[in-house]
Amino acid sequence: MRKHVRKLKDELVKRGLDAFLAIQNTRYLAGTTAAKAVIVPTDGPPVLICSRLEFDQAKREGWIRDVRAFSRWRAPLRPGERVSFCEPLQLIADCLRELGTRAVGYDRGGKKFVRKLRAAHAASYRELPELMLELRKIKSKEEVTLLQRAAKIAMNGMRCAAESVTVGRTELEVAAEAEREMRIAGSEGTPFPTIVASGRNSWLPHASATRKHLRRGELVVIDFGATWGGYASDMTRTFALSPTKKQLTLIGLVKRAQKAAIGRVRNGAKASNVDKAARIIISRVGYAKFSPHGTGHGVGMEVHEPPGLAPDSKDILRERMVITVEPGIYVPRVGGARWEDMVLVTKKGCKSLTA
Ligand SMILES: [Mn+2]
Fold first, then answer.
1. What is the pTM of this model?
2. Which residues are in the CB-under-5-Å shell of ion ligand 1?
3. 114-153 pLDDT, tens per residue?
4. Domain residue extents for the chain
5. Which of 49, 223, 252, 303 would you label with 24, given CA atoms 20 to 30 Å apart?
6. How far is the CA of 304 from the centre of ligand 1 (A)?
7. What's the CATH fold of domain 2-135?
């Protein structure tokens, strides 16, 4: 997290800013979920702003020493607490003034918020939502370790899900088995609602899990992730219960498309070309019309972050990005199939984190 602040400072200097106000990327910078805002001046240590409720947590979990809390009402303080009795915005403005900032970048804030902030501390404010996302694309060694662990947990969850895919069980039961396994293995939670989509649900790319029972002759798309140290994982497998030939072909097809796409992943590759490699395989059998989504996305603290792997993507893959590769085909009345793995981009290729 210290490293993330250092990287951010380099960017601030390049852009002629003298501070960054993070409202959205607080955990990435501070290493704790307690921060409401983090102020990073180009010179000097960062300041963590939190609610008084979270003062202790911020101190314990985070690495930033300068922790300042706000409380909207006056109350007696314990020794060591540093609390301003004001609105959070006022505390942020006071800090920005104290640091002598004139040009401030920020990641997110509504028009009203920025207007009020400007009134409380006059400076030029620039909304730079892509700046942090750009930094977050490339993972540090420590982040890769966390993502690897999150991926391992998901793999074990998937093994468990595989065992519970049997005729008569409900989608929710299968989801519960996988989630239970991951929880016990240390997952902080699922980064998105677990998908167990069987039969007619399988051809909806964004189904969740329902009370529907699994039946013979159905495909079952299972897509979920775990969270470890704030980092997400994401993987998908497709199972079949006494499948037809056509259904088996679908599964074979997404696996082949995925293999072709993964074959294109390497430092310097265009993300759109990785997507294309999968799309060509799918188009050859006339299924392009059944493949409506991009082939993958970056994974980090959020399960969906840049880069995007899609026909219109401008991203270039770089070493130490972590992405998913997940072609999917959804044929109404036949079934849906998706195969997703998380890979770490390397100089010459990639390394799977979910295999
Ligand atoms: Mn995914």
1. 0.94
2. 234, 324
3. 999 999 999 999 999 899 999 999 999 999 999 999 999 9
4. 2-135, 141-352
5. 223
6. 7
7. Creatine Amidinohydrolase; Chain A, domain 1 (3.40.350)
